[in-house]
């Protein structure tokens, strides 16, 4: 049963190719500068934010004006490069965040709609199997494995109820 808020999205092959090409171009442009941090790395690193920006800018300006106060291990030119690159990538990230949020929300909604519809079909197959409709027991045996596997994969948790539970 369709509801008024069901999404009806159909991407053409041309649209999907265009999206893929744009993502490929973005990935190729960013690949030389992106790194991957482990979760412990992320946790241990001090985090800069927009609130940190004035401090970083002032420290850089003062370090360039009065380099005698910088310890030998402080790379002032490196600080400038890091700051500029951080600001540039922040702008890119801000452009991507709403796209990723929209993509995530749309994906969640589409997946939910597909799952709810599949569950409705599963319930119908269960009912048909109880009524002795030909072919329904075979279909039920195929579909019920999803629920049997999900309870096996999560030891120590309560079993997931089937839609008719």
Draw up the topology in text.
Blueprint lengths: L12 H18 L8 H6 L8 H13 L10 H55 L5 H8 L1 H8 L13
Question: Helix segment count?
Answer: 6
Spatial extent as radius of gyration = 27 Å
Nearest-integer average pLDDT? 90
Element order, helices and strands? HHHHHH
Portion in strands: under 5%
Total beta strand runs: 0
| Largest sheet, strands/sense/barrel | none
Q: Measure the end-to-end span.
A: 21 Å
Q: Percent helix among the residues?
A: 55-70%
Short description:
This protein is an all-alpha fold and 165 residues long. It contains 6 helices and no strands.
How would you describe this protein?
By secondary structure, this protein is mainly α. It has a domain at 50-152. 65% of the residues lie in helices and 0% in strands. It has six helices and no strands. It has helices spanning 13-30, 39-44, 53-65, 76-130, 136-143, 145-152. Helix 3 runs antiparallel to helix 4 (76-130) and helix 4 (76-130) runs antiparallel to helix 5. It is elongated and about 90 Å long. The mean pLDDT is 90.
């Amino acid at each position: 049963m369709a509801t008024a808020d069901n999404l009806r999205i159909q991407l053409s092959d041309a649209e999907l190719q265009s999206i893929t090409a744009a993502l490929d171009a973005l990935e190729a442009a960013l690949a030389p500068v992106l790194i991957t941090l482990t979760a412990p790395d992320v946790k241990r690193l001090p985090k800069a934010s927009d609130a940190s920006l004035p401090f970083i800018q002032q420290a850089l300006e003062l370090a360039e004006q009065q380099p005698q106060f910088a310890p030998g291990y402080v790379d002032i030119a490196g600080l400038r490069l890091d700051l500029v690159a951080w600001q540039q990538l922040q702008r890119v990230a801000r452009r991507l965040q709403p796209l990723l949020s929209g993509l995530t929300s749309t994906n969640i909604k589409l997946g939910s709609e597909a799952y709810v519809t599949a569950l409705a079909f599963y319930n119908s197959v269960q009912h048909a199997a109880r009524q002795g409709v030909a072919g329904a027991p075979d279909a039920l045996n195929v579909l019920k494995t999803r629920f049997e596997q999900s309870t096996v994969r999560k030891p120590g948790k309560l079993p997931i109820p089937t839609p008719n539970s």
